[in-house]
Every structure is written in structure tokens, then in C-alpha cells.
Amino acid sequence: MSPGRIEDHPVLGPLRERRSIAFTFDGQDVSGYEGEPIAAALLACGIRTLRYHEETGTPRGIYCNIGHCFECRVTVNGVGGVRACLTPVQAEMNVERGLPLPSPLKKGGEPL
Ligand code: FES
């Protein structure tokens, strides 16, 4: 499927076939396997940046990969704040880079 994906594990052997699911990320056609989290599918497609930090603009992606840090927030079918590491891919899902959260204060008290 993609060069970023392990198909034949050195210890586990060949991994079983799974159904491929097509979806989009920022308008780009990508795919994952049935039951696979969005973040894992995107990583296998070579996409590591899932959003940008609200204040610094630095790229953010998978950090904890267990749903605690919220660094992997993306927008799914128009709904923001979805954790890509926990949410399985679904057919024709429209995923976009995470929208910035409202930040009423910045350093120095300047509003956004
Ligand atoms: S990577 Fe930490 S919540 Fe998803």
C-alpha cells in the first residue's frame, strides 16, 4: 500500500490483508486500513503534521498516541478537536488539519 507501512514483520511474519479505506486529508486522497486510527493511516502515507501550534506555529502531530495530550487534533467532516490517534478511519471521511483552539490571551495580554 505505501512505503511507510510494514507489510511483512520480521518477527510476526506477513501481516494479514485488511480492507483499504479511502478518505481525504486537506483535499488529498489518502487511504488507511479498516479499524486503523487516522493518525496511523496518515503516518503510513508520509503525513506527520496534523496541525500547527496556536501561538508558535510549529508543526504538531502524534505525541502520546493514547489520547491524553490532544496534540493530534484534526477536523473530521467539519467537527474540530477530533483526536486522530483514537479515531478510526471511515470511508469518504474528510479530514483537515486541526483548527486552532480559541486562545483569549497571548503573552503580554494581547488578544488574538
Ligand atoms: S497523540 Fe496524544 S492525544 Fe493523540
Number of helices: 1
| Quaternary state of the chains | single chain
- Silhouette: globular
Question: Which strand order does the major sheet show?
Answer: 4-3-9-7-8
Bound molecules: FE2/S2 (inorganic) cluster
- Tell me what portion of residues adopts beta-strand conformation: 25-35%
The run of helices and strands is EEEEHEEEEE
Mean pLDDT: 88
Calculate Rg over CA atoms.
Answer: 16 Å
> What is the makeup of the main sheet?
5 strands, mixed
- The number of E-state strands comes to 9
What structural category do the secondary elements indicate? mainly beta
Word description of this protein:
There is one protein chain. This protein is mainly beta and 112 residues long. It is built from 1 helix and 9 strands; from the N terminus they run ββββαβββββ. The strands form 3 sheets. It has a 5-stranded mixed beta sheet, covered by helices on one side. A two-stranded antiparallel sheet has the order 1-2. The longest helix is centred in the middle third of the chain and has 7 residues, at 38-44. FE2/S2 (inorganic) cluster (FES) binds at residues 62-65, 67-72, 83, 85.
